[in-house]
Amino acid sequence: MKSAIMNLILSSSIGIIAFVMLVNAAPPNCKGDCEQNHKEPKQDWGYVGVRPKANMFWWLYYSTQQPFSSVPLVLWLQGGPGGSSTGFGNFQEIGPLDVNQNPRNTTWVSVANILYIDNPVGTGYSYVTDSSAYTTNVSQIADDLVTCITAFFNKLPQFQKIPFYIFSESYGGKMTAAFSQKLLQAIQAGKVSADFKGFAMGDSWISPVDYVMTWGPYLKATSLLDSVGFAAVQDVAERTKEAFDQGNYSRSTELWGEAENVIETYSDDVNFYNILEHNVPDENAKGGSPIEQLRRRHLDVYQNDALSALMNGPLKKKLGIPDSVTWGGQAGEVFTQQSEDFMKPVISIVDDLITNSDLRVIVYNGQLDLICDTPGTELWVQKLTWPGLVHFNSTTWTPEYVKSKQGDTAYFYKSYENFAFFWIMKAGHMVPADAGEAALSMLESIIDSGKK
């Protein structure tokens, strides 16, 4: 019954005649597809009404490669949930300019066309006009994304025949898995025209309990917990798992937050996004409900003052964003609305797509990440029922180097059939921000492999 309902929802959502607003909303002397200035590539952007009272914003950067049709289209989905792809992913990770509007020499537009979508609705420039329009789980998020990408390909049909990949980070990886499954179904049903090649999940929240259970051993092994702290972290981790196993997902979410508080107490406030960094303790951040503490810890990082000033200042005017919309203004509610779904894994979806599709499925992880640590990622990968896992495990990984640091390993990778894993050295949670050259090299490797 549940499956039938979800199929009905998918069919209905795709069947919606999605309206696109702000089409070619460019400066007065532009038509939306011209050069914005000497630093930036060709661009386009717009809104899609994915449901009544729910509006999703997308922003496309054409590749600097000529012709643009000679390289793939890559969609970037940020985490949070509530982190903005058009803001954080664009200006602090992979876009052509950084937050100070200076050129980035490791931008992904040098090898691909880059599309950003602010999702779930309420994130970034995306917005809802009624609180009932927020999503509460990844299935609903995936439906909205299918509707949005359908409208995008209909508006710009020249991208329908170009190889299409989805790259993601953090909670974006969880959303990407669900989205990829529904997008593939829509393509197979003839409802979407796209050359969907695969998706990549970077430091992604695929199996939350596996991450919580590996935090203690990982921190102990890296000299960030002593035996007393380790015992305290393991105690709350076990309670988190117990609540999850009992189906008490809200309580499991609260205990996840408690586990992070315990870690900060015993590790001198280690940074959950890079274990080599330690935060200055902020007592104000420790107040409020468990979900409010989680929101501050994992969402505020995406909305620093400099980025907010840029997005709510000159760029809001350039893009023609409605006056009533504040970039990031609804992000807190986006995060809170997902609280019942936070701890639910999507391993089965990833497993299905590896086993039963031709999509290339890629996992990559920063060596120094804590929130989605590499031991936790490796743990959930070993839970796959994919028949090729035994062969994957027996394959020896390969080191890779980048031009500027030939004597320094940038990453290791291994692959078998349509599954690949990249271990990124000297990077935390935000791999492109910490190891930009390695991330770009990885992207090029994935694109090249897709041509074979």
UniProtKB/TrEMBL annotation:
Cellular compartments per GO CC: extracellular region
What subcellular compartments does it reside in? Secreted
What highest taxon heads this organism's lineage?
Eukaryota
Q: An example of a Gene Ontology BP annotation on this entry?
A: proteolysis
Enzyme Commission code(s) on record: 3.4.16.-
Q: Which UniProt keywords apply?
A: Carboxypeptidase, Glycoprotein, Hydrolase, Protease, Secreted, Signal
Q: Under the GO molecular function aspect, what terms does this record hold?
A: serine-type carboxypeptidase activity
UniProt keyword Ribonucleoprotein present: no
Q: Which residues form the signal peptide?
A: 1-25
Q: Which InterPro entries match?
A: AB_hydrolase_fold, Peptidase_S10, Ser_caboxypep_ser_AS
Family stated for the protein in its record: Belongs to the peptidase S10 family.
Describe its function. Answer: May be involved in vascular wall and kidney homeostasis.
Q: What is this protein called?
A: Carboxypeptidase
Q: Which organism is it from?
A: Strongylocentrotus purpuratus (Purple sea urchin)
Q: What is the lineage of its organism?
A: Eukaryota, Metazoa, Echinodermata, Eleutherozoa, Echinozoa
